From TrEMBL:
<dbReference type="InterPro" id="IPR033922">
    <property type="entry name" value="NAD_bind_Glu_DH"/>
</dbReference>
<comment type="similarity">
    <text>Belongs to the Glu/Leu/Phe/Val dehydrogenases family.</text>
</comment>
<feature type="binding site">
    <location>
        <position position="222"/>
    </location>
    <ligand>
        <name>NAD(+)</name>
    </ligand>
</feature>
<feature type="binding site">
    <location>
        <position position="191"/>
    </location>
    <ligand>
        <name>NAD(+)</name>
    </ligand>
</feature>
<feature type="binding site">
    <location>
        <position position="95"/>
    </location>
    <ligand>
        <name>substrate</name>
    </ligand>
</feature>
<dbReference type="GO" id="GO:0006538">
    <property type="term" value="P:L-glutamate catabolic process"/>
</dbReference>
<feature type="active site" description="Proton donor">
    <location>
        <position position="107"/>
    </location>
</feature>
<protein>
    <recommendedName>
        <fullName>Glutamate dehydrogenase</fullName>
    </recommendedName>
</protein>
<dbReference type="InterPro" id="IPR033524">
    <property type="entry name" value="Glu/Leu/Phe/Val_DH_AS"/>
</dbReference>
<keyword id="KW-0547">Nucleotide-binding</keyword>
<dbReference type="GO" id="GO:0000166">
    <property type="term" value="F:nucleotide binding"/>
</dbReference>
<feature type="domain" description="Glutamate/phenylalanine/leucine/valine/L-tryptophan dehydrogenase C-terminal">
    <location>
        <begin position="184"/>
        <end position="426"/>
    </location>
</feature>
<dbReference type="GO" id="GO:0004352">
    <property type="term" value="F:glutamate dehydrogenase (NAD+) activity"/>
</dbReference>
<keyword id="KW-0560">Oxidoreductase</keyword>
<feature type="binding site">
    <location>
        <position position="362"/>
    </location>
    <ligand>
        <name>substrate</name>
    </ligand>
</feature>
<feature type="binding site">
    <location>
        <position position="71"/>
    </location>
    <ligand>
        <name>substrate</name>
    </ligand>
</feature>
<dbReference type="InterPro" id="IPR014362">
    <property type="entry name" value="Glu_DH"/>
</dbReference>
Amino acid sequence: MEDKKFNPFKMAQQQFDGVAEKLGLDEATRELLRNPLREYHFSIPVKMDDGSVRVFRGFRVQHNDARGPAKGGIRFHPQETADTVRALATWMTWKCAVVDIPLGGGKGGVICDPHNLSMREQEQICRGWVRQIARNVGPLSDVPAPDVMTTGQHMLWMLDEYETIHGAKYPGFITGKPVGMGGSLGRTQATGYGVMFTVREALKQMNIDPKNTTASVQGFGNVAQYAIELYTKLGGKVICVSSWDQKDQTSYAFKRDSGIDLQELLSITDKFGGIDKEKATQKGYEVLPGKVWIEQEVDILVPAALENQITAETVQKINPKVKLIAEGANGPTVPEADAIIKERGIFVIPDFLCNAGGVTCSYFEQVQCNMNYYWELEEVLQKLDIKMTSAFLSVYELAKKKNLYMRDAAYMIAIDRVAKAVKARGWV
């Protein structure tokens, strides 16, 4: 999945240090913001279906909660590391700050592979995770959500365990719940739609009509699917999409010059976002190695899979036609690649702005839960559009005014807001 040398937390710190320098932050504030405030590592013993007991490693990192309760997903992944969780918690802090919602950054994880676990075993991991940390999370301190390979079902098990321990109803403890069980309408669309709200605004600033654009998308999970749906509605055409194949443990790209058909691909996709190769071929798709998604002759690239995808090596393969990169994934572009993208003048919508639709809608869910009053879908998506558009415009305007790279401008706004909060609280 990742090359052994890549450390996402080092990358998150490197990005922070560059901006801290530009902002002229004092030593204490830097020290406080470049590391998590708190982290928890724990063991989760689970009685397996065959009667044996396995011990899983779990994490929760609370990077910073100066602006509000920590917020962030829980991922189940066989290659999960403490550093990945630290990096994601750090990015969550900046993400909440850049869209200006009153939350901080957190992240959780368990080292496990849900593909090889029964639903009962996964439930035990969920409940065990909550038992280990029930005193340190909650609707007013740290609010988890789904992430890689976790779903609304996992969140409900966690909520149920939390409420059992505390003996009361706390629907605002966790977000990404199923609708009807405290979930918000629009949550499933939120991240992918948010990506496209920012793309729409970027194209406006570039005087480009979405109808005249093509795109290549990496990944075919929730974010990619809804980004493709809205992009197609805006008139754009996706000609290539890549997806991870569980059986072969590798990724494939599915290409069709006339444009992919989202519903058609969804009908041959498994629940982990893997597209059936044989059926795709029958439907007229070219099946290629997954890494070619980045080489396509398109206007827009949307990395919507994992971190560390646009590297010093792969950035060289980006077609000269590409004008815009919209980072649907977290941390897809490494700093060395950034330098080359900057040089080539490609417009980048940085990850923690581009994919902040998910956390924004999670915030809406939390608000609705705490009020015990739920909004209609139209209202959720409209509020999401307003939030994403105004966040994009404040970053774009700063970038334009100070002639900054979009990523640097987004970081400057986010880090400045958090730095002011820790100062105002008297922490530094």
